[in-house]
Amino acid sequence: MDFMKLLREERARARAAASSTKIETNSNNSNEIKGGDSQTDIVSETTVASRKAAQEAQERERLEEDRKMLQTMHYHLVDLKLPHEGNLHRFVVGKVPTLIYIPDVISEDEEQKLMGNISMYDKNWRSLRGRKLQCWGGNPDGSASDGVFSTLSPWLTNLCESLVRNGVFEPENSPNHVLINQYNTDEGIIHHTDGPKYFNRVAILSLQSTRLMTFRHRLRPEEVGVKYGGDLFSVCLRPRSLLIFQDDLYSEYLHGLSDGIEEDEVGGEVEDQGKGDAKDAEAVPCVNSDLAGVVPGVKVRSFAVI
Questions:
Q1: How confident is the model at residue 124 (pLDDT cuts 50, 70, 90)?
Q2: Considering the chain, what percentage of its residues have pLDDT values greater than 70?
Q3: I want to staple 110 with a disulfide (CB 3.0 to 4.6 A). Which of 13, 60, 106, 251 is the partner?
Q4: Given the DSSP bridges, would you call strands 242-246 and 201-205 parallel, antiparallel or unpaired?
């Protein structure tokens, strides 16, 4: 037996083991060696990829659950009754481009049918500050969460198609996302914009109760404390009415519903709404009081689904 050969092989195995241990130790202590972050980066990418794969699998499961649930539901299809596209200009209100208010686009019976559709998903409300929410068509950021449905229910798809048929949206910009907000008497939502992830046009169908939506300037940082940032004007949202806003009102103004009070007061219409300073007015000017059938000074406030 060649003992020298065995000794050399044993020493070679010892050196190899020592080398492996050193590499592994340096990799696990990446701050101690130059370039040690490379393995950490690879692990991070692998983790992100794994997380993405898990999210995609979760989304597929959610889609399948939504599909099965919708198949078992008995819902009502409701079409909106809107004037011909060319006549929408008759319902433009206010002086800031562009605000359209159309009363009575559905009947009371159709309103109850829509409320019945919504009530089928009572277990799927997401509770937020000042409201409850159902989100249909997925989250804009692609994430999954409670109260979010990956697809539109057929009755919501029908409503969206009705908006296209009546010229509110072009076919290439057909709505694919719906938010259903439920507000109790003293609830509302802070003033906000809907942001760049959406097409710059919003259609709001109001159900059950009357609320006032108010609009404010969207102030830039240098305008804060210099330019008036309070409510400039309001729109009275009557049950079964449709509100459409776009253009400057989408991008340059904030919209919201008052929170924490029992009643809103309808203000009178004024000529300079949206351009002047409304802070000294007794009530914020209401730009659609005639179309909404309300008189200045009336108090409105109650449960609403918007």
A1: confident
A2: 68
A3: 106
A4: antiparallel
Domain residue ranges of the chain, discontinuous segments joined by + = 73-305
Phi, psi of 148 (to 5 degrees): -115, 125
Say what percent of the chain tops pLDDT 90. Answer: 40
Q: DSSP labels for 116-166?
A: HHHHTTGGG-EEETTEEEEEES--TTS---TTEESS--HHHHHHHHHHHHT
Q: Give yes or no for a contact between 154 and 275, defined as CB atoms under 8 angstroms apart.
A: no
pTM for the whole structure: 0.72
189 versus 33: which is more confidently predicted? 189
Determine the Cα–Cα distance for residues 96 and 212; give it in Å rounded to an integer: 17
Q: CA dist 290 to 84, 223, 241, 298, Å? A: 21, 34, 13, 13
| Topology of the domain covering 73-305 | Jelly Rolls (2.60.120)
pLDDT of 210 over the 50 cut: yes
Q: Looking at residue 6, what is its pLDDT?
A: 46
Q: Is 141 exposed, middle or buried (0-12, 13-18, 19+ CB in 10 A)?
A: exposed
Side chain identity at residue 58, one-letter code:
Q
For residue 212, report the phi and psi dihedrals to the nearest 5 degrees: -105, 125
